[in-house]
Fold this protein.
Amino acid sequence: MSDLRETLDIVMSRRGGSPVLVGRAAEMATLQAALETVREGEPAAVLIGGEAGMGKTRLIGEFTAAARGAGVRVLTGACLELGADGLPYSPFTAMLRDLVREAAPDEVAALLAGGGRTVRELARLLPELSADRAAADEPALLSTTLPAGEDRGAYSVGMTAGEARAHLFEGFLTLLERLADQRPLALIIEDAHWADRSSRDLLAFLIGYQRAVGNLLIVVTFRSDELHRTHPLRPLLAELARIDWVDRIELPPLTRGQAEELAAVVLRRTPERGLADAIYERAQGNPLFTEELLASAGECDAVPDTLADLLLEAVRRLPEETQEVLRVASAGSGMTTDMLLAQVTGHDVARLTAAIRPAVAANVLVTTSDGFSFRHALIQEAVHADLLPGEHSAVHTKFAKAIDADPTLVPPGRADIEKAHHWYSGHNTTWALIGSWQASMQASNAVAHAERLMLLDRVLELWDQVPDASAQIGADHVRVLEEAAAAAGDAGEPHRGLSFVELALAELDETTEPVRFALLLRLRFSFRKDNGLSWSEDDLHRALALVPESLSPSARSEVLLSLGHCGGDADGPHYRVLATEALRLTRELGNVDGQAKALSNLAMVEAGRSQVATSDSEAFKLLRQARELTQRARAYHPTIKLVITETHLLCGAGEFEEAVRAAQRGIADAERHGLARTGGAFLAINLAEPLFYLGRWDEAVEVAGRALDLAPPPRTRVGLWIVDGAIAVARGDYAMAARRANSSRQVLAAGGFDEQHHLPLAWLEVDTALAAEGPAAAVAVAMDALQRYDVPMCSPRYGWPLLVSAATAATQAPGEEAAALLDRVRTFAEKLEVNGPVQRAWQLSYAALDPSFVLDLDGTDDPEAGGDDDRLAVADAAVAAWEAVGQPYQEAVALTHAARIALAGRAGREATARLRRAAPIAQQLGAVPLAGQIADLIRRASGSDADSDDPGLTVRELEVLRLVASGQSNREIAAALVISPKTSSVHVSNILAKLGAATRTEAAVRAHELGILGLPTR
């Protein structure tokens, strides 16, 4: 098994695995937090479980590199698959060997000075530790299972097995203690599922006595899929998990979004939807399986041989009868009931249970409430591949006939779909065609859009193989294409929908079937837009010409609605006319859905190019009328469009809390209607954005992640990536921000300009370049964007943030390029409108950056009266504006900029006052780069003004500071003040920022210098 794992590692190295760790941020944070706990003098241990291929070794590798970079000594040892009679203490022997290589035997022996017996006992594990080599001639300590008093010659004269083990354990503990006295120490034991009893006992001893060592972190990894019910590691893990300082975590499968991110990193491009979906469905989020399938993608559909060997290793150890049942069960679709499996195998329930039991014990099959399923889809796939061709067809035919005879053998509503699958796999093309068509109708009723699309795709695949296919299902080929296009739209796969539409248009004659042709043109326009491809309104105008009102008022209204929606961000009269005509037609037709859509289009026209409308505006009056219509008719598709429009306008107006509530309700409705991947995922953008603005960053990241896991359409993913990237750059994760920007750029490259995607992406790219590469790089990125996009002609909602980012870069960079950029930005800013409080806040932020920008502060239309020369007044106005709209991050940024202006004017006290407001905001948000800037400015301000000696600590912060100065850890402070460790940590962070200190020691020194530790609390 270990040889096979090495082979897999070599294969992945050769084929090119992921150069970055994906989807393990939470687990890495747990390890880092444990290390920080150890640094504070508290014990910490982490037990990490996960199935084979989940990335335990990769996680440990990343953590080890980071820890060593931070000055931590790391000792690593792996258990070997040799059983209880193999090499005892193998991971600890490996650690000692690494230590000797790193520190030399004499240095290690010096650590144990005065402990001659201890050295001799440790030398039994590694003879190199013995200075005189005497112990090297003694047999190694092989077992801890000897009865007390028994002597095999492996111990010192007169020493029992128990005494020898005690000396060995104590010796190892002493060694760790002295190593940890030098610097923090991390002990890592990998593959503990293969640990022998001796190693398990020593591990339990070390963790149990860990508090006595200090500065020691212990990390243990194990394969959870190997832990059958009688595995000896299970009780030890349960016992260790009850210890206060031990955390047990399980590496979960990658989410859909994380798996796609991994694929993009491995392939160095965003994977095509079909490939991404197929690999995620097969690998089920296992990183190793994902990488291996990516490496072989395009070569064959079978499981790669190296991966199949790993997957089938446990299967091949099972009894032959069990393997035979597994081969039959592998033809099932997901979960298989025991009664269905009994029918197909011909076994009675008792015999079937006896055959299945070993597979369940070996964790190949897992039990469900209704039957059995394979633990992993790839195991099922690998077992199924072992069926001979004749067996394959015969088994699937048996399944189909059994379900046809008794539909209750499968869950309710699944009979048609299951039969279609088995007839298809059994190569009965006629019944597969009929069954797939019938099942697609059933899937449509059950809002199972992805399954419906798969079934319709199968109908199209079989069409030419079945004589008179149209008569068999009662529909022509174009009808199947139309249904498939609709299913693709609902399933969130616009690229496939576009292909179906193009095929259908090629088969139709617009002169003989103009209505059908027109509706397909409308659908093609919609799919091209959703796919991020270049699009114009030509298809819609052509469709409108094909369906005059006299021919088909219904089709004409549908085309008018699509045209009206195109002008949602424009205030020209043309789109108002289109939306008004659509409203008239839908009212005459009694089409409530259409009326709601027309009213929504009119609301967007009313909002105009600014895309700002408050809840009491005319636009919202129209939206309320539309909502009343949809509620009466219980129409859902128009409802979700209304919510999208409503949340979009609320967010633009700065009504973030209301936008959050509306978006949350809309997403819940989308999930109930089976449209989570389309309308629900799009609404997730309109939820993540206001959460980001409100400073609820963790929630925003979670919302974006959940939506990305659904693999939504490309443009929807771009919106989610940009929000996620903006939070990443604000928190200092520049690599993630760059990946999000790069993925977005790839998607948008295929289409025309769309201001709500291209301008925010440019904003993200400028900010990322500024943070990661410096002002000069950011100036180049910003200049490129402003040369490509005519910002004054775009919505100011997206224009102002880009101009502020560009100005920030320009004011920080020297040289002619920066000056030229600032000139261009100023030209655009003078032309760009301002609508609503959010856009006003952005304008003020820009004015604070550019002293040459003339701004009326007090609304008198007299720039001089407004004091435009007073940059600090403008900066403070920006602070007030951001505070008023409730955007804490931008408020902290504005406060920091105002402090810089004050500091430049040698007003240290005024700078410090603003920084004291900004520091806790940055800390609470986790905006690490901004917090660092604030701390640096506080240090500068504290030396620039004699009146700034008082750092402005609160009563509680003074109490915490006194305990910090006395050397107490966060946990000790929390216990002393009866607060939580997390609250203690927040207080310490705030104190560091206010004192301008990078470390706790520096904070204590600074406090003594200022003489504030003796100040009375007030």
Remarks:
- The radius of gyration is 34 Å.
- The chain has a mean pLDDT of 83.
- The CA atoms of residues 352 and 983 lie 57 Å apart.
